[in-house]
Amino acid sequence: MSNINKYNCEYQHRLNEEQQKSIHNECRPKRNPQNVQAWLIGRDVASLAAAVHLITKAKVPAHQVHILDIHHGSTGVIKAPGAQPYFHEECVKDILNVVPSLTDPDKSCWENIKEHEWYTRPINQSHARVIRQDQGETRQRKARMDLIEFILDDEKSFGPKKIGDLFDKTLFESEFWTLWSTTFMLQKWHSASEFHRLLCKYLPEMHTRNSV
Which GO terms describe its biological process (predicted)? Predict the structure, then answer.
């Protein structure tokens, strides 16, 4: 059998499987969204996304979507620290653009947030950090080389190691660590793999994170 015929047979086989799955899904009885009680664990972005899709896509009544959380004394969704910068993820923006404003039905929650930031916080002028400028050139160079080597390493090599297991005080006393750790709420005992992922994803945009 030629390669072309073999490819056509495989393609036809996969196409038949997809058609059978589609027929099976159409035959399955659909739930009545009015009878659905959805329970979400954790008041975070994942639960917010699930709730938005349940209400907008699945047409589940909002009062039948329940979010369970152990945090007391606050309402709304908690943007948990330690993994993501505050409202800088595109997926978070997309979700908040779908959520209607509590004060203006013609606006989204995201528009309210941006308006609040515009009037209450100067752009790119965070005053929450104290940065030392007296570090020696040798120490700065060592911290940079350690970071470059760390970024180029394979994440699998870190295993269960913590950030503090792979870096010395040269990094932790640097102005870079002050900015990075306060932006992402990182500590020395956090996962080295988490630190690696954040560096790979956000390092090119670090100059835009100083207003967090």
Answer: fatty acid metabolic process
Here the contacts of 45-54 (C-beta below 8 Å, separation 24 or greater) are 45/77, 45/79, 45/80, 45/84, 45/89, 45/91, 45/92, 45/95, 47/77, 48/77, 48/95, 48/99, 49/91, 49/95, 52/95, 52/98, 52/99
Return the closest-CA partner of residue 184 out of 94, 81, 106, 93.
81
Q: Are 31 and 57 in contact (CB under 8 A)?
A: no
30-50 confidence digits (pLDDT tens): 789 899 999 998 777 778 889
Residue 22 has pLDDT above 70, yes or no: no
Return d(Cα 57, Cα 67) in angstroms, integer: 18
Tokens of 210: 């100083």
